[in-house]
Amino acid sequence: MNQPTCQKVQDQEARRRAAAILAQSRQEEPAMKRYAHPIPCWSGYPWPAPTPAGEGTDRILEELARQNQLLLDLLGAVNALTAATLSIRSRFVGEP
Questions:
Q1: What is the predicted pLDDT for the residue at 1?
Q2: How far is CA 15 from each of CA 53, 58, 74, 81, rounded to the nearest angstrom?
Q3: Buried b or exposed e, range 20-41, using 16+ CB within 10 angstroms
Q4: Which helix (H) or strand (E) holds 42?
Q5: Which of the four pLDDT bands, split at 50, 70 and 90, describes residue 45?
């Protein structure tokens, strides 16, 4: 009967150490830099500007490709943060 109580104490100690490490790392990290990235709004024009055939479509496709790359970069950052969080959790809490 001593095993569950001992396991609870170990879990609580691991959680306390993990919280202390996280609190310490939050204090040492510099503030996140925020970059404003305007998203072009095509609906702001009352009518499309006259362009040679195909040029407008090329421009739209370029903007869509750029936005797609930004979304992929964000997804990569979220995946990296998730992996780091799970790694820390498994090390300090003892979960696989």
A1: 47
A2: 63, 54, 29, 19
A3: eeeeeeeeeeeeeeeeeeeeee
A4: none
A5: low
Q: Answer yes or no: is pLDDT of 28 > 70.
A: no
Structure tokens at 8: 């609870």
Kindly give, in sequence order, each residue whose CB lies less than 8 Å from that of residue 73, ignoring residues fewer than 6 positions away. Answer: none
Q: Which amino acid, 31? A: A
Helix, strand or coil, per DSSP, at residue 43: helix
Please list the alpha-helical segments (H only) found in 1-96.
2-28, 55-93
Give the helix/strand (H/E) hosting 46. none
φ/ψ of residue 76, rounded to 5: -65, -40
Crossing angle between the packed helical segments 55-93 and 2-28, to the nearest 10 degrees? 130
